[in-house]
From TrEMBL:
The protein's name in its UniProt record: Glutaminyl-peptide cyclotransferase
InterPro entries cross-referenced by the UniProt entry: QCT (IPR007788), Quino_amine_DH_bsu (IPR011044)
Organism field: Urochloa decumbens
Pfam families: Glu_cyclase_2
Length: 262
């Protein structure tokens, strides 16, 4: 995800149907994975809070499911970290990829306190992006490059690089077998975690409308959840055909953050 632009999108958005709240059992099961999406969708978007992805403006005839959210808990976090990838590492720890040139890093963070437990500072010409954990290996991609890095989750000094076939790197996720990747377009990639060969690529669509700006990714219950960059929306995507199964709206979360003391 590149730095947020100062421009805004001036478009009148139709009022979505009354959201169906996600139940707490689902939130509890996916809370760690969803944390990255909540943070990224809320922290850096600059469009109007009521502006959905363009695909939602087509007023499709077929019904769709729309969800809100339950805020379960809040944790402290470094306000200077330009968070691009975030995942739960077990034992009250997070792994985090931060962006911006000369400020990009990979971190291990103590969840209850926000304290950085381990840290690798990336080269100044690298812009850190999506991050995912497969086994004991952390995979990270970088913006505007085909370069990625693999880190030992226990020792960040043990790392190596790889090259992928996406346009550049935005988001990463895994189902434990393949890597799902995004490059800011409407494409969702499936890559082999050893050869990085693209095994499958689908176009993300809502009804018949492409959904561009696919950003941070998480894999939850056989779905790929994707933050749509510069909107307050998460698309729940079928990795089989790229169809958006439902939407999660987070505009209330960002509005609450703006109104809070933080």
């Amino acid at each position: 995800m590149p730095p947020a632009s100062s421009s805004t999108l001036s478009v009148s958005a139709p009022a979505p149907p009354k959201p169906l709240h996600l139940r707490r059992p689902l939130i509890a099961a996916a809370a760690a994975a969803l944390a990255a999406l909540l943070l990224l969708a809320a922290a850096y978007a600059t469009w109007r809070v009521d502006s959905p992805p363009a695909a939602l403006l087509a007023r499709p005839a077929a019904p769709a499911r729309f969800y809100s959210f339950d805020l379960v808990r809040e944790y402290p976090h470094d306000p200077d970290a330009f968070t691009q990838g975030l995942l739960y590492g077990g034992n009250d720890t997070l792994f985090e990829s931060t962006g911006l040139y000369h400020r990009s890093s990979v971190r291990k963070v103590e969840l209850p306190t926000g304290k950085v437990l381990d840290h690798h500072q990336m080269d100044g010409d690298m812009f850190g992006e999506g991050l995912t954990l497969l086994g004991d290996r952390l995979f990270q991609v970088t913006w505007l490059k085909n370069d990625g890095f693999i880190y030992d989750r226990h020792n960040f000094t043990k790392r190596k690089s790889f090259t992928h076939k996406m346009r550049d790197g935005w988001g990463l996720a895994t189902d434990g077998k393949v890597l799902f990747g995004s490059d800011g377009s409407s494409k969702l990639y499936q890559m082999d975690p050893k050869s990085f060969k693209v095994m499958k690529m689908v176009t993300v669509k809502y009804q018949d409308n492409e959904v561009p700006n696919i950003n941070e990714l998480e894999y939850i219950d056989s779905e790929v959840w994707a933050n749509v960059w510069q909107t307050d929306c998460i698309a729940r995507i079928s990795p089989e055909d790229g169809q958006v199964l439902s939407w999660i709206f987070l505009h209330e979360l960002r509005r609450n953050l703006w109104n809070s003391e933080y």
